[in-house]
Amino acid sequence: MIKTLKTTVPVALIALGLTGAAHAEIKLGASVSATGPAAFLGDPEAKTLEMLVEELNAKGGINGEEVELVLYDDGGDANKARTFATRLIEDDEVQAIIGGTTTGTSMSILSVAEDAEVPFISLAGAIDIIQPVKPFTFKTPHTDRMACQKIFEDMQKRSITKIGMISGTDGFGASMQAQCKDVVAEYDIEIVADETYDPKDADMTAQLTKIKNAAGIQAVLNPGFGQGPSIVTRNYKQLGIDLPLYQSHGVASDGFIELAGKDAAEGVRLPGTALLVADLLADDDAQKPVVAAYKKAFEDRYEMPVSTFGGYAHDGFALMVNAITAAGSNEPEAIRDALESVAGLAGTTGIYTMSAEDHLGLDLSAFRMLEVRNGAWSIVE
């Protein structure tokens, strides 16, 4: 039976364990942003982890041992994330951690996890999380650099050579902006207008007007996440900019379409995961069984659409379970070694094959190029 415990601290702590048992043999920690500005990312992550632990324990756990999940809500605050990571390791004595909804919270958690030599799987996008490779840090989402490459591949196919870029100044937006600038020349594409906005800004018309008036622009790219890209999309429509608009995988969800408005979002392109187009996958697609099972379980339980971000948590949990099972041990170093040996594990985000040199295990083929058509995601051929 699952028990939900509440603390007196301002954020929620949910401990999932076995009734009547003082401690589970396998303790998994998590710190996600279930509330706050990144709640649209962290809430489905928290729900996913709770659901998967309950399902796993109902089936007998890992190698016959129940899993206890200690889950904290850091509200998107990097300092709280660091505090919770310390608590998870020193007080809760977890053997591994999943979480870090945002780049900022992930960087805080990994600093603690690396010092303690506890394996950590991040759910955030920035490449800095895993490059250079850190001994105990892994992640499930594609990197921002990969997103740039996938977008530029699509632009190149369409003979787009001059673009404007409008980027959020948050951790993810700034990181992706830098990564796009670093690789853009490889695709013979020139950035002829480069604007930014604060994540709290309520209108980006001024920046978009400058981009609209720049000579020769053929498309616009918006690295960012949260509400900013939705505002950019609405302003883009209001200004009547008749050029392709590309967003990042940081807004790959149905929520983005709803927030931007179906009319404004129509035609927007971005690199996303198989999960967003589950019903459109071919029957022989290696990810289809995993994607379909997760989508059904989540939507049946929570009566809300599944999201890419919950999928990141699904994959992080699947990787941890696979590693602990393969290692036959709950020792942190053994789990780390097993994570580095993962090969061909199908998740909702892609098919993972990791190594000591690669703590992500995905390539560009894991991305699907998607476009909003008639108010829903479709696969770009």
From TrEMBL:
SUPFAM superfamilies: Periplasmic binding protein-like I. Coiled coil: none annotated. InterPro entries: BCAA_transport, Leu-bd, Leu_Ile_Val-bd, Peripla_BP_I. Keywords: Amino-acid transport, Signal, Transport. Residues 1-24 form the signal peptide. Residues 25-361 form the Leucine-binding protein domain. It holds the Pfam family Peripla_BP_6. Belongs to the leucine-binding protein family. This is ABC transporter substrate-binding protein. It comes from Paracoccus aurantius.
